[in-house]
Amino acid sequence: MTAGVPSEPTHDVGNASVGELVKNVANDLTTLVRQEIALAKAETKEEVTKAGKAGGAFGGAGLAGWLALLFISLAVMYGLGEVIPVGWAALIVGVLWAIGAAALAAYGRSKVKEVNPVPKRTVETVKEDVRWVQNRNA
Fold first, then answer.
1. What span, in angstroms and rounded, lies between the C-alpha atoms of 95 and 76?
2. Which UniProt keywords apply (predicted)?
């Protein structure tokens, strides 16, 4: 039996009592629910991992942006106060931080687009399970 895909019944129901049939259905449904929960957990874990990576990239972009602001501000201060090489060096570093912030923000944005909070496989297999139970009871 694969996850989310029920197997055919393994017991003969021809001579089974109503109590045995109810017990078998309850056992099958319990197994089915457990499998669906396991699948949902696995899918959700994947999506949370993607969201974590995107959040980390945005955090890095925030830090890089803050440093860009700091160095550009220092560069403007030194450049306007008195034109010395230290000010221009700070400007170069600030521009590099701004480029880094833009790259991290673009990376974070691309990762956010990959996040899908709906466990699609679980939804599909639950629909299949419902059809299977309906056909089994027909």
1. 12
2. Membrane, Transmembrane, Transmembrane helix
Q: Rounded to an integer, what is the distance from CA 43 to the centroid of its chain?
A: 8
Rounded to whole angstroms, how far apart are CA atoms 102 and 65? 8
The token duo for 9 is 């019944």
| Spans of the chain below 50 pLDDT | 1-4
**How far is 77 from 123, CA to CA, in rounded Å?**
58
What token pair was written down for 87?
Answer: 């000010």
Residue range 57-91, pLDDT digits in tens: 999 999 999 889 887 877 777 776 665 677 777 77
CA dihedral (52, 54, 60, 64) in degrees, to 10, reads: -160
CA-based nearest residue to 6, from 28, 30, 37: 28
pTM of the model: 0.39
